[in-house]
Design a protein that fits this description.
By secondary structure, the chain is of the alpha+beta class. Helices cover 46% and strands 19% of the residues.
Length: 206
């Protein structure tokens, strides 16, 4: 039995089969009864015969059996397994891990992220944030802030045109953005974005 290193993986040659000890699970390496995917490794074609847990530091092991030349229901998509394949797989996994960490961090800030304008929320969607959900959180945050501000203005006698104007802005924002949440739309407004949207409609600009 011989073995070689394939970047971070280990390949063991047992008779005419190969056991791949993979550092990361490969979702496209599945045991299939039909439409098996050819795996090209060191000039030989194989298919995934068995999979199972692997000893650490590896995540999973795959038994590759020799390809049967009389197999006519093969998948047209061949997997070219080599160091470049493993390197690209590990790079994708690291990127997914970073995205997941950012996703968790952003969830903690969801009510404040919902205040951001629609374009920014759309770009943050790559981290798994739902624009409608975070906008809903921000609407309730704005509603609470409006109540607190109204109480402070009323109890502390802070009546002024500036305070009344700010209170009107907060109320309008809550009402308009809450109304938008009930409609199916691609983008959900951030705080005050409806002002710009209204001006664009009036002027006919985009």
């Amino acid at each position: 039995m011989a073995e070689i290193q394939v970047h971070t993986d280990k390949a063991e040659f047992v008779c005419d089969c190969v056991i791949i000890h993979a550092r990361r699970e490969m979702t496209d390496w599945r045991v299939r009864e039909f439409c098996r995917r050819p795996i090209l490794f060191r000039g030989q074609r194989y298919f995934v015969s068995e999979t199972g847990p692997a000893e650490k530091p590896f995540a999973r092991k795959y038994l590759l059996a020799p390809w049967q030349e009389d197999l006519h229901d093969a998948s047209p998509h061949t997997i070219y397994y080599d160091e470049d394949y493993v390197r690209a797989r590990d790079k994708r996994a690291r990127g997914d891990s970073v995205d997941e960490q950012i996703h968790v961090a952003l969830l903690c800030l969801a009510p404040f992220i919902g205040l951001l304008w629609s374009g920014t929320k759309r770009r943050l969607g790559r981290f798994g944030l739902n624009s409608r959900a975070v906008t809903g959180f921000s609407v309730f945050l704005t509603f609470d802030a409006t109540l607190v501000f109204a109480i402070l203005v009323g109890w502390l006698g802070g009546a002024s045109l500036v305070n009344y104007g700010l209170l009107a802005l907060l109320l309008a924002d809550v009402c308009l953005r809450y109304d938008q949440l009930g409609r199916d739309t691609e983008d959900y407004w951030g705080f005050g974005e409806w002002l710009v949207a209204g001006l664009r409609r009036i002027t006919g600009s985009r």
